[in-house]
Inverse folding.
């Protein structure tokens, strides 16, 4: 991926250090982010060296990153699944979310992976009101057809 060859709003797989630095920097910009940067950096290194994960990025017309997603492959008793470790998409580029989703669904289909999982960590007031408990995270899953 050479900078002069980058097409705007096109998703690329990367292991380029300067781009990985930008992805890590985005973790600081997310509100209420509980991701430990030091742990995230270690995971990125592991994913790239043993090919158990991928870093996807996209750039706008100005050649600045406008989206990124870090995904990794895991297995549990129900089989293999793709885990979304981190995702950031410029809020002004909403159409990119669909492109990223399509990209990871196609990746799953090619590799025979039937599930995609991700974690979210905000928006759980109802249980607090009902029983005084609270959630700190929730895992969401999507089946890949």
């Amino acid at each position: 991926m050479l900078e002069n060859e980058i097409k705007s709003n096109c998703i690329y797989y990367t292991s380029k250090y300067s781009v990985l630095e930008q992805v890590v920097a985005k973790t600081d910009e997310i509100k209420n982010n509980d991701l430990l940067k030091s742990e995230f950096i270690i995971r990125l290194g592991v994913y790239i060296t043993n090919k158990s994960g991928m870093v996807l990025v996209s750039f706008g017309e100005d050649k600045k990153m406008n989206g990124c997603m870090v995904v990794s492959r895991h297995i549990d008793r129900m089989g293999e699944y793709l885990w979304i470790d981190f995702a950031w998409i410029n809020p002004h580029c909403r159409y990119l979310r669909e492109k990223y989703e399509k990209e990871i669904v196609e990746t799953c289909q090619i590799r025979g992976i039937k599930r995609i999982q991700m974690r979210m960590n905000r928006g759980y007031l109802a249980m607090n009101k009902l029983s005084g408990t609270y959630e700190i995270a929730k895992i969401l899953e999507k089946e890949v057809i």
About this structure: The longest helix spans residues 95-111.
